[in-house]
Amino acid sequence: MITATHLTKLYGDFAAVDDLSFTIEDGHVYGFLGPNGAGKSTTLNIITGCLAPTSGEVKIDNLDIYENSREAKRKVGYLPEIPPLYVDQTPREYLDFVADAKKVARASKNDEIERVAKETHIEHVLDKPIKFLSKGYRQRVGISQALVGDPQIVILDEPTVGLDPVQILEIRELINELGKKHTVILSSHILSEVQAICDKVLIIYKGKMVAFDAPENLGKNLEQESVIEIFCDCDKESAFEILEDIEEIKDKEILMEEENICKIRVHANGNEPLNVCKKIFMAFASKDIALMQINPIKTTLEDIFIELTKDEEVTTYDSSVTA
Amino acid sequence: MTAVLRHELSLFYHNMTGYVFGAFLLLFTGIGAMLYNINSSVANFEYVLSFISVVFVVIVPILTMRIISEERRQKTDQLLYSLPITSTEIVMGKFFSLICVYVMPLIFIAAYPLIFAQYGDVYLPTSYGSLVAFFFMGAAFISMGMYISSLTESQGMAAGICIAVMLFNYFCASLSDYVSATAFGSVVVLVVMCLIIGFIVRFMTKSTIAGAIVFVLGIGAVLVAYFVGSTTLDNLLPNIMKNLSLYERFNVFVNGVFDINGIVYYISVVAFFLFLCVQSLEKRRYNG
Fold first, then answer.
1. Is residue B42 exposed (0-12), middle (13-18) or buried (19+ Cβ within 10 Å)?
2. Best to test chain A binding among B79, B81, B89 (most A CBs inside 10 Å)
3. pTM value > 0.90
4. What is the pLDDT of residues B205-216, one digit of tens each?
């Protein structure tokens, strides 16, 4: 468990992290989300002890990261934004050093190296110099380093940046596996990624926390409306006439119209888009007009993110609404 | 600490630095031994050590330039900070790895006097006494180079500054004969030094007031000393320069005196720079 209380990091007058407090419970995959320069990396550097905060404190299982740094740091594996690799060495030598530094017993050291190599699928490159490895493999070596010594908490700073789509999928799969055994914290500015792998999302903007909740709960916090797109076999006027009778619909816009086929986006009140879909379908069916497509659009994390970070004035998120 | 030590040693012999350093030192020892011991038939190996001590100006920067600066450039220092090891352990591990690389060629050099002793009378105590001093002097230079490496992210910069400092140190004693020996000359130089120290303090603490306080206090002390007892300031500048010179101390050993003061002096220099090095790493942790 990580407890951060009132973390602040000032660079001159600029607050990279501004009075940030949160608690990370064991056994989940957490996502730190924020635009570039929001203070994600700074926060992660502070909770891993790589950077001292200007004020505030970090405790890992009630051990202060400075006063009991040795014990506290042994509970955490950290992959910084740029994987800290010694490119002249082979992964085996590199992991050997990390295992020594983490005081892994000499007898079990080789087993430990084999274990983390297997977990990150780098067994076959263990004896190739790191400088000859591709970016995806370097990232894996970086992750394997974080896993040495079997820490409770694994912290990954932007683990998929700069990888190709196939590698991104592989790393995500790897993180999912890690989530079963460790508490994983990862940072990202890619929303779909966080949505795909994280149980809980912490959104940081300008050094402040603007939201901390499960991704599916975040949407409920916003003013709700459902968006539905339909594709129908009639002209715009008759379609609008039919839609007029459905009371939930408050707004409609035409997306495309040609020769008696049109595509319309409707905005409806409430967060039960399927009900509205049913009504739309029945309304068109009763007039004998075919609907070729009816598509409820989900509120994505993207919308939430833009909503939360659009204001100049950051309002601190009130978690009691959904809790 | 042993983890860092073993790791650094592996790096030294991965990228050839260790071999280049050893080869360079042994090459110059060979040339020195040929000139003094073989061609001129001198039985004193300490003269060879005195002759090769100038190569420190080149080989110490080769050895120390990347030791910390490269960690910063490659961002591997973040790994060191996140591992359960302290800054002191990092610095000690790195320093002892440098010492190991340095001792390797010294083991070969230690065979020279014994070999020469097979062919004539060599007074071994002065030879080995000088070798011990040679070792400590090198250690002092290495700690200095390591501290310089911790100040910058660029290896080239670290090497450049290190060479400049080493050259100054090498010529310090001979230059001291040419600088002003009067009390007034000393005052001028001390005032300039206070100014420089004030600027360094300002740069490191980012506080103009702290820099100004240090500067004013320094000037005050100098002026009080000048007006109260200006005789104490006579010859002060040349003396400071002579005492700063690590080479000057080594000459005592070459002349056949095993000077414990000199050894203590070298060890203090090592401790001083290692302390600064730890502070430099800690500062980085605070300033990011």
1. middle
2. B79
3. no
4. 777 888 888 889
